[in-house]
């Protein structure tokens, strides 16, 4: 059979962000996939060095358009550790609340994209409609749907009153009912299963070799979650399950992410019901004492690592970001080898890439 | 002179181009509205299909350098002409322009011509997406066409006639074919989804995989004609199913025949829209398996039973 080269990207309907794949196919089967990244490199790590620590809170928020809050959380956490600040518990709880709301919105967005890619437009429409509930809550809390600017070094800048807590709780219940619908479809709909089962398989051994993190790792049976393994913010006092699955395919990833949304809803309820009193932030010095720190958070896509080095001035000497997407990108040539061209969008969306994060 | 005028009226107004054009736009709008409402959206206003058509007609028409210019210009017209000709032998509102023994075969042949044109359009328009889409369209054709033909053959054998008008007329004296051959209707319906490349069998034009498939490189007037011919094909195929399985426009009740016919056609359209909303798109190999291991044997058994019953 003669070989053909199909370009996927940098612009392609299956890609929401620029990324390039050159697929060599025989008939409908993929022989090889060559990956190119770097189309949205913005030189952010250099920009960090030219801004002071307070300005940088707003720059790191713009690393990613979906998980903006987790980036500021990881950054502020690191700088606070360098400053030796004790963060008030109320601030930590609100930070965590936003983290979990963001996880819900990110997972629902992903579910919609996957559904669209397997030609299941209805689930796409439903997932994005229900995601609006979370976006509305976040907008009420912070004034922004995507960039929330909630974190400041030393705490948060938003507050909640009892009335708002109640209103959010009712809306979260509403959302939970919708999630039940999605779980029903994922578990029982035949066409959904035939398109996702056995596609994009990664074994636990491959996951460990490539250091894959987050839901993709958990769907292959590798039980890692920083929220439990190295609790940060308010996670130490929360009761939640870490969802894992054994299959390691796109279906398992869908299941893991959707069940994680349910867990996130539980976490949000616990946080809202047991919100401690007290101040929202502490004063932070402009100059950071010399030193270096590694700050880690569990982003919606997995472990996010910030390395921050300070030389004692008001500007960081170096900030290095390792995003979870980088680890999954490396697995893609492996996942794509031998699959049907029709499954390429499923494989690509199955790992939930965030190219803007990975390129920075 | 009168003959010429009436022939022109038949070709251009009813049941020719004008009527089918109107039906194509209305059916497209209903389909989009139903899907939108089921998906929690608002859907387009009633004039959207017409606006889309006019806008496309006015747009610049470009083809890539490697494409076969003449063939690409001719193919949408071939497709449209085949569909319009098929409409002449299918009785609409109890009356077909041309009735003869074997017009069912002619209609089925004419309705599968657009599939061939669609495949060629992909093959000749010099783009990897359209080549992949074209080969998928051909594979899909083999998967749905055999069960579809056999399913439509069932009523013909039972009625002892290969004329659509006679099959429809026969049903007014006995019962609807959908009652006698529910499996046959189901097969024809599933085949129709494949034939019209509608979700969940929209494999040749899966937009997240291969853009618009065979039509990726088409634009302007050519694309407008393609869209129109595919929409008209939807209308004509639905009319065919109404005649063969739902008894056409014949009814024992004192209701205008046109109304009965319209309601039946809309019911099939509704079923198509709802099916499109309910499922995820299959892969081409999965459709081939469904077609050859599921639909074709069923159609074979159905045909055998019909033949034995006839004897």
Describe this structure in words.
The complex is a heterodimer of chains A (360) and B (311). Chain A has 360 residues and is α+β, with helices and mostly antiparallel strands. Chain A is built from 14 helices and eight strands. Chain A has one domain: Cytochrome-c3 Hydrogenase, chain B, CATH 1.10.645.10. In chain A, the strands form three sheets. Chain A has a three-stranded antiparallel β-sheet with strand order 1-2-3. In chain A, strands 6-7-8 form a three-stranded antiparallel β-sheet. In chain A, strands 4-5 form a two-stranded antiparallel sheet. The model of chain B has no long low-confidence stretch (mean pLDDT 85). Chain B contains 13 helices and no strands. The longest helix of chain B is centred in the middle third of the chain and has 32 residues. Chain B has one domain. Chains A and B meet through strand 1, helix 4, helix 5 and helix 7 of A and helix 6, helix 10 and helix 13 of B.
List strands and helices in order, with pairings.
The complex is a heterodimer of chains A (360) and B (311).
Chain A: E1 3-8, E2 20-26, E3 29-36, H1 44-49, H2 53-61, H3 68-83, H4 89-117, H5 121-142, E4 151-152, E5 155-156, H6 162-188, H7 190-196, H8 204-209, H9 214-219, H10 226-229, H11 250-273, E6 291-299, E7 302-310, E8 316-322, H12 324-336, H13 344-350, H14 355-359
Antiparallel strand pairs in A: 1-2, 2-3, 4-5, 6-7, 7-8
Chain B: H1 2-12, H2 17-38, H3 48-58, H4 69-89, H5 103-124, H6 128-159, H7 164-173, H8 177-180, H9 182-195, H10 207-210, H11 220-245, H12 257-278, H13 284-310
Helix pairs in contact in B: 2-11, 2-12, 3-11, 4-5, 4-11, 5-6, 6-9, 6-13, 7-11, 9-11, 11-12
């Amino acid at each position: 059979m003669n070989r053909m080269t199909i370009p996927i990207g940098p612009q392609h309907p299956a890609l929401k962000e620029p990324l390039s794949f050159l697929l060599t196919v025989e008939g409908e089967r993929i022989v090889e996939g060559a990956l190119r990244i770097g189309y949205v490199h913005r030189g952010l790590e250099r920009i960090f060095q030219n801004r002071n620590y307070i300005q940088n809170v707003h720059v790191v928020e713009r690393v990613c358009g979906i998980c903006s809050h987790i980036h500021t959380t990881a950054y502020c956490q690191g700088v606070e550790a360098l400053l030796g600040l004790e963060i008030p518990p109320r601030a930590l709880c609100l930070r965590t609340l936003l983290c979990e709301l963001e996880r819900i919105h990110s997972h629902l967005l992903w579910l919609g994209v996957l559904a669209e890619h397997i030609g299941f437009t209805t689930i796409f429409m439903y997932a994005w409609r229900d995601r609006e509930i979370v976006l509305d809550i976040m907008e009420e809390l912070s004034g922004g749907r995507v960039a929330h600017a909630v974190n400041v070094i030393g705490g948060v800048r938003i507050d909640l009153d009892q009335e708002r807590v109640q209103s959010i709780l009712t809306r979260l219940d509403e959302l939970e009912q919708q999630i039940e619908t999605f779980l029903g479809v994922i578990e029982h709909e035949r066409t959904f299963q035939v398109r996702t089962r056995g596609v994009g398989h990664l074994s636990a051994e491959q996951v460990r070799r490539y250091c894959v993190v987050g839901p993709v790792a958990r769907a292959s049976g590798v039980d890692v979650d920083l929220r439990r393994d190295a609790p940060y913010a308010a996670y130490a006092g929360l009761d939640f399950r870490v969802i894992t699955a054994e299959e390691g395919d796109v279906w398992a990833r869908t299941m893991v992410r959707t069940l994680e949304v349910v867990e996130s809803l539980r976490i949000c309820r616990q946080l809202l019901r047991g919100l401690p009193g007290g101040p929202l932030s502490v004063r932070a010095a402009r100059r950071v004492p010399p030193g270096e720190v590694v700050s880690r958070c569990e982003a919606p896509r997995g472990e996010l690592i910030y390395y921050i080095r300070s030389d004692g001035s008001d500007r960081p000497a170096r900030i290095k970001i390792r995003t979870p997407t980088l680890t999954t990108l490396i697995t893609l040539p492996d996942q794509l080898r031998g699959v049907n061209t029709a499954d390429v969008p499923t494989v690509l969306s199955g790992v939930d890439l965030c190219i803007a994060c990975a390129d920075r | 002179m009168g003959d010429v005028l009436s022939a022109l009226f038949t070709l251009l107004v009813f049941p020719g181009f004008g009527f089918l054009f109107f039906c194509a736009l209305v059916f497209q709008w209903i389909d989009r509205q139903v899907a939108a409402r089921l998906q929690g959206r608002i859907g387009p206003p009633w004039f959207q299909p017409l606006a889309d058509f006019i806008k496309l007609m006015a747009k610049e028409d470009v083809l890539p350098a490697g494409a076969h210019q003449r063939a690409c210009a001719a193919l949408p017209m071939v497709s449209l002409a085949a569909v319009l000709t098929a409409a002449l032998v299918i009785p609409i509102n109890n009356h077909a322009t041309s009735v003869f023994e074997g017009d069912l075969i002619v209609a089925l042949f004419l309705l599968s011509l657009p599939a061939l044109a669609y495949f060629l359009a992909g093959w000749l328009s010099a783009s990897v997406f359209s080549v992949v889409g074209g080969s998928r369209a051909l594979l899909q054709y083999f998967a749905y066409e055999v069960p579809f033909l056999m399913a439509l053959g069932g009523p013909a054998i039972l009625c002892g006639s290969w004329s659509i008008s006679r099959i429809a007329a026969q049903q007014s004296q006995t019962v609807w074919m959908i009652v006698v051959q529910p499996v046959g209707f189901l097969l024809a319906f599933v085949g129709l989804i494949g034939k019209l490349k509608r979700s969940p069998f929209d494999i040749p034009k899966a937009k997240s995989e291969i853009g618009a498939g065979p039509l990726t490189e088409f634009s302007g007037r050519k694309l407008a004609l393609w869209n129109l011919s595919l929409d008209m094909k939807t209308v004509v195929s639905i009319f065919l199913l109404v005649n063969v399985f739902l008894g056409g426009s014949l009814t024992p009740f004192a209701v205008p025949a046109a109304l009965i016919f319209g309601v039946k056609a809309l019911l099939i359209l509704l079923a198509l829209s709802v099916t499109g909303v309910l499922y995820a798109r299959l892969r081409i190999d999965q459709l081939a398996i469904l077609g050859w291991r599921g639909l074709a044997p069923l159609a074979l058994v159905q045909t055998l039973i019909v033949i034995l019953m006839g004897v």
